[in-house]
Amino acid sequence: MCPSFATVRRKGKSRSGLPLTGKVLFIVAHETGNNSADADAHFKYFNRHVTASSAHAFIDDTKILEILPLNEKAWHVQYQKAMDNILFGDDANDRAIGVELCRTGNFAKAYNRYVWYMSYLCRKFGLKPNKHIVSHKVLDPESRYDPESWLQPHGITWERFISDVTAVYNAWTGAM
């Protein structure tokens, strides 16, 4: 399982073009909340629309699609929310990777790709799943409930998700 790459053209606010302000400190787990769009559809959306939001990767049942370089800022958590600073000492947009789980297709396949990719990112950036993956819900509890809003209807708790990522992470041989 390897990520596919299709970079959003620099257009408006969906792609900052700005580098992260330092090394990646954490990963923010999201879900799209969109029942009718796969990873390719989200890529096309961010290329067509000028929107003040984005994420680094979108995952569905057939692919892992990185639409922004992992060393570039994405707009995936509101700056005025303080929890990312409290937990990690910096803003998510400046120091975190944003990963979206798509709601289309086969959930089990998409979930397995999501788990694998989170483990991959933890290995790539020297992070621990139980310490450095955070739910968007935790960072913005007043208005967000993702990714739990898509995991829970499928019987997946946050704790199980982190356990699944940790199992893949621990089983990894270290070769990347």
According to CATH, the homologous superfamily is: Peptidoglycan recognition protein-like
Residue share in helix: 25-40%
Task: Return Rg in Å.
Answer: 15 Å
- CATH-defined architecture: 3-Layer(aba) Sandwich
Strand order of the largest sheet: 1-4-3-5-2-6
Note the main sheet.
6 strands, mixed
Termini separation comes to 11 Å
Order of helices and strands: EEHEEHHEHHEHHH
Q: Given the C-alpha coordinates, what overall shape results?
A: globular
Q: Would you report the number of β strands?
A: 6
Instruction: State the CATH class.
Output: Alpha Beta
Low confidence ranges: none
Number of domains: 1
Q: What is the name of the CATH topology?
A: Lysozyme-like
Number of helices: 8
Class from helix and strand fractions: alpha/beta
Average pLDDT taken over every residue: 92
- β-sheet strand percentage: 5-15%
Strands, helices and their partners?
Layout (H helix, E strand, L loop, with lengths): L3 E2 L20 E6 L7 H10 L8 E3 L4 E3 L16 H6 L3 H4 E6 L5 H19 L3 H4 E3 H4 L8 H4 L6 H14 L5
Parallel strand pairs: 1-4, 2-5, 2-6, 3-5
Antiparallel strand pairs: 3-4
Helix pairs in contact: 4-8
Could you characterize the architecture of this molecule?
It holds the Pfam family Amidase_2. InterPro entries: Amidase/PGRP_sf, Amidase_domain, NAMLAA_amidase_2. Its EC number is 3.5.1.28. The protein is built from eight helices and six strands. It is an alpha/beta fold. The chain has one domain: Peptidoglycan recognition protein-like (Lysozyme-like, 3-Layer(aba) Sandwich), CATH 3.40.80. A six-stranded mixed beta sheet has the order 1-4-3-5-2-6, sandwiched between helices. It is globular.
